[in-house]
Amino acid sequence: MSAIGKYALLLLLIGNLASQYVPFNPIAGISFYGTLVLGAMYCIYNCKGLFIKDNIKAASFIFVFVAIYLLYQFTFGLFYIEKISLMYLAAKITVLLIIFWGITLHYEFYYRKIIPYLSITIAILIVYGLFFHNYIIHGRFTLGFGNPNSTSAIAAIGFATFLLIKMPSKYISIAGVIICLFGVLAGGSRASIMVCMIALFFKYRFSVKTVVLIFGCLLVALYIIPMTGYKVIGLDRIMDVFANGNFVGSRQDVRRATMMMINEHPVIGWGLRTGIQGEAAKLTTMGAHNGYLDTIKAIGYPYAAILFGACIYIFYRMRLLFIEKSPYVKFHLFVIISVLLAAMYESYIIGVNQIITNMLFVSVAVLEYRCYYNIQDEDTEEH
After folding, report:
1. Do 167 and 153 touch, CB atoms closer than 8 A?
2. CB-CB neighbours of 161 under 10 Å
3. Is 70 exceeded by the pLDDT of residue 154?
4. Gap between the Cα atoms of 11 and 94, Å rounded
5. Which residues lie below 8 Å from residue 24, measured CB to CB, with a gap of 6+?
6. Of 165, 216, 234, 318, which alpha carbon lies 20 to 30 A from 301's?
7. How much helix, strand and coil, in percent to the nearest 5, is found in the chain?
8. Each residue's pLDDT tens digit, 29-73
9. Alpha-carbon span 383 to 310, nearest angstrom
């Protein structure tokens, strides 16, 4: 039974990745829902472990989300008791607890061992997608993934891994960086391109080398690559943002619609897993493309304030991690910062079967576990 607790998280991440990679879609549902069932069974069988004081303290980020979701659903959420909201609540909590048990039972595996394999898998998927399953949407490549934004976001995780973590060979690192950076640029996501710059700062810190690297990459992308006939859509979109001062792109209507709903029910929210409705639906039926606004829309300002305030406090307690030299700590910090920033442009945080959202929770969980038990790496050699 302990093997389920250890490796259900691995199955979850595989299912998350499969759900966003079109050739794997036929097995994605089976993988994800099968993992949820196994995870739920394990949590019920080992429910006593969920109330151990040290477990709660070592994974407070996860338990804060679990507690807030439950409290909301059985207070203000009683106004919105529907099948879809209860299914979302059960799935989200199960996913969070799968992450909790995975880190608690197999910390080293998810902190360090899985990362190189994840990045190599991402690089292989990008290459396969380019040659066998690529669709171009308004000049942006999917490379086998469901949409260009997913392509860029997942490729950015791979880029940071190859940049920060020591691989078996330097040639694997170089090839991985090139392939994943291509994936980011081909997907054309502005947020993911900015995230790659954050990875460079984690690698080289604030130095002349960092500035020269970023400046050189921009020159290549803006002037050299276009000479080959390929245009870097993502950089063009970033330049357009700064030129026009439009930092929400074409998403003004979805933000306005979400704010209309928030202003209509600022305290009690609209319930978990609620789409755009009412007067707001006349503007759009799409979500806010902003994890924070989607959270406020769902649970209202009071619970959202408690949730975000608790998260800020937890991050404050982890502040000393920024001075550590371990490349694995840097990688997980990169994931946390990049996803939290990207959540202003994508509906992260609230997702369930979403690898970027779940990578956020995994990275926070392993670093919080590390801090609580004061675990140190035997080897902090930087790549």
Report:
1. no
2. 28
3. yes
4. 13
5. 17, 18
6. 318
7. 75, 0, 25
8. 899 999 999 999 999 999 999 999 999 999 999 999 999 999 999
9. 34
Please give the distance of CA 373 from its chain centroid, rounded to a whole number. Answer: 25
> Are the C-beta atoms of 284 and 276 separated by less than 8 Å?
yes
**Helix, strand, or coil (residue 21):** strand
The helix/strand/coil state of 47 is helix
What span, in angstroms and rounded, lies between the C-alpha atoms of 3 and 220?
48
Torsion region of 269: left, alpha or beta (phi above 0 gives left; psi -120 to 50 gives alpha):
left
CA-to-CA distance for 115 and 328, rounded, in angstroms?
A: 9
Residue identified by tokens 């330097």 is 170
Query: Which pairs from 200-206 meet CB under 8 Å and 24+ separation?
Result: 200/163, 202/160, 202/164, 202/330, 202/331, 202/333, 202/334, 203/163, 203/164, 203/330
CB of 64 within 8 A of CB of 307? yes
In 91-242, where do the E strands start and end? 136-137, 140-141
CB 106 within 8 A of CB 7: yes
Better-predicted residue by pLDDT, 2 or 202? 202
Which one, of 346, 349, 366, lies nearest residue 151 by Cα?
A: 346
- Return d(Cα 262, Cα 298) in angstroms, integer: 8
The count of other CB atoms within 10 Å of the CB of residue 195 is: 24
Q: Band of the pLDDT at 284, cuts 50, 70, 90?
A: confident
The candidate with the shortest Cα–Cα distance to 34, out of 91, 110, 99, is 91
Check pLDDT > 70 for residue 309.
yes
C-alpha 214/C-alpha 121 separation (Å) is 26
Nearest Cα to Cα of residue 333 among 206, 203, 214: 203
Cα angle value 290/293/297 (rounded, 5°): 135
| Residue 20, φ and ψ in degrees, nearest 5 | -105, 0
Q: Look up the pTM and report it.
A: 0.91
DSSP 166: P
Residue 241 banded pLDDT, cuts 50, 70, 90: low
